[in-house]
Amino acid sequence: MNVQDHMWLDPAVLRPLTRTDVYALDLRGGEDRRSIRLRGEILELTGGRLASGVGDDGGVRPNVVLAAGGCGLADDDAFRMSRADGVLRIEGNTSLALLYGFYAYLRDLVLGRVVREGDGRTESPSHPMRMIDHWDQIDGTVERGYGGASIFFGIPGENDNGSYEHERPWNHADPFRNDLGRLTWYARLLASVGVNGIVLNNVNVRGGARRLIVEPYLDKVAELADLFDGFGIAVYLSVHFAAPISVGGLSSADPCDPDVRAWWMHTAKAIYERIPQFGGFLVKADSEGEPGPHEYGRTQADGANMLAEALRPYGGRVVWRAFVYDCHLDWRDRTRDRAVGAYETFQPLDGAFADNVCLQIKFGPVDFQTCEPANPLLHSLRATNIVVEFQIAAEYLGHQIDVNFAPAQWIDVMGQPVDGGSDGVPLSRSLRARALDPANVGYAGVANVGMGAHWTGGVFAQASLYGFGRMCWDAGLSAEHIADEWAALTFPGAGRNAQGKIAAILKSSNRTYRDYTAPLGVGWMFAREDHYGPSVCAFEYDRWGGVNRADRDGVGVDRTSTGSGLTEQYPSALRDLYADPARCPDELLLFFHWVPYGHVLHGGKTVVQHIYDTHFAGVERVREYVAAWDGLRGVIDGPRFENVAERLRMQLDNAVAWRDQINTFFHRMSGVPDERGREIYP
Ligand code: GCV
User: What sequence ranges are listed for the domain Glycosyl hydrolase family 67 catalytic (predicted)?
Assistant: First the structure.
């Protein structure tokens, strides 16, 4: 089996802790695919054994009883864990709930948490939809993939590093990689943190991938759907909006054309006949050149609802992306800005989507940048199912080379009250109440894994995947808590002191990356194509509209009513906060405002001095990471130690490059010297 790294769920760690366990299953509803999987998991992961019933088994009483059915929990994924008479009882309505409870029990063991006699707890997921989106392509590459080749597609030995190219010719009959051992491990790892949906292929549905929704590929999709279903994970496919043309041979993809509607109905029927548990479709339409309903003068709701109608008889969902914006901007026009696109398109459609449509909205108004406010749509929609999209893959956050624990940023953004006031419900907990169907809301994360030895390129990037699952499951967890958990679960043998050092790196890493890259929310100063490393003006005079608007007097993007008007899309409390440079939070100042270099921040520094200071400080913090990690030599196993050490060296080079280019640029622009006289290159 091609798995060298078991991430946070290592059987070698679990077996000694569970050696004496005797597990019993009490299934009122009888066996199903998940209960059979649960039995398999007990045997695969623990050193214990399975009893034949809940009573004494050959004179040995089970010490862990997993009981499904009739426990009255409101959520079918929820479980209750309690201990009485020395027996740990894990109960839930379904066998899937038991699987979640079993993984939680294993996590508790490694973390040293004990459910005491007479004590107990109930866990119920915060979000019903907990999705992973793969941007994998059938040629084995992964768009914005930094963990190696696709785990789903490709030929072993070909393109193993998975580097992303737009469209490679595909000449093989079977595009699937068929590494079911690795996929079983992947499904296990995802289920262990509560993930329950997965999209196999890229939202940019290129070439042959458009045919994944029809035979002969459905057989292979069905095989994967069965595998993932055992772990409670529904398989979805990204579909090409123009598939009626490119796959079906019709002359149109107009959502109001009866032939087009009939084609989708027929296609959905064939999928569900083959894969009854199929999750549904993910769609990127009218976005970055992808086809969509706008081409036919129809709305986004027309397009999504047509697909929803086709999937409805089978309980399927349409996950429709809100990443619709103008990517042909004119940099000369300061009143236009990609950040306003999603709200302009989708806010008027609030209430117009079918109840099996989920609008998948990137968490910020731009595009997974280092520092963004919440997308205004997350505040404003009142009658739409929302799935919030995050990018676990670190496209803009250091390519999984630089340490960057992104859940710190995500949890922070989603912690904001929905009305922008001080006492409202946080965005993270507001989705169900604003949904047409509260079962159709949640979070989606763009995957960061591949065929590489450690799944995610850099070992530290595993923490963002773990953290994504944990924050989907429990919106109340802090980023610090998740970082501590990950360090303890991933390096259990390293001891508390080492785990503390590892967690400390994680906890400050998102801030550190921000410090040496994106000053005060300005962003977009990275290299043009691959988005790694500095290139201050790469997007400045560009159709994509990511800009810094720096000149000799100041810097920043005016997104207030005198600029692009993004501030006007927020609820009044936030609009007033963001629109006023005197009140705007420092970290978003240049995201919303152009200000002179001498503008004084809340902390008392000028903007330009802050830029110098954070860029020097960011590099110093990376040096501290290098030293801290070096101190763990001999404590961490060789392959993982070397993996991180190598990447930290690369990160240091990257941070130095950022510091010097950014500081030099702003020094040249402003002419303002560093008040501490540090070296800034002329
Ligand atoms: C899948 C960004 C990325 C693209 C990605 C797009 C999207 O622009 O650079 O690679 O395409 O987002 O989310 O659709």
Answer: 122-455
The finding on whether 143 has its CB within 6 A of some atom of ligand 1 is yes
CATH number for 11-123 (one of 3.40.640.10, 3.30.379.10, 2.40.160.20, 3.40.1550.10): it is 3.30.379.10
Largest CA distance in the chain: 83
| Cα–Cα dist 496/501, whole Å | 9
Taking only the tens place, the pLDDT of each residue in 423-454 is 789 999 999 999 999 999 999 999 999 999 99
The verdict on whether 395 is a catalytic residue reads yes
pTM of the full predicted structure? 0.97
Does residue 75 carry a catalytic annotation?
no
What torsion do the CA atoms of 200, 203, 209, 215 make, to the nearest 10 degrees? 60
Centre of ligand 1 to C-alpha 55, Å, is 55
For residue 187, give the 3-state DSSP assignment.
helix
- Does ligand 1 come within 6 angstroms of the Cβ of 323? yes
Q: What does the pLDDT look like over 629-644, one tens digit per residue?
A: 999 999 999 999 999 9
Most ligand 1 atoms within 8 A of CB, residue of 288, 361, 391 to mutate: 288
Q: So where are the chain's domains?
A: 11-123, 129-477, 515-557+594-670
How far away, in angstroms, is 368 Cα from ligand 1 center?
9
d(CA 646, CA 248): 49
Q: Which CATH number fits domain 515-557+594-670: 3.30.70.20, 3.90.1330.10, 3.40.50.11260, 3.30.200.20?
A: 3.90.1330.10
Given a contact cutoff of 8 angstroms between Cβ atoms, the answer to whether 381 and 430 are in contact is: no
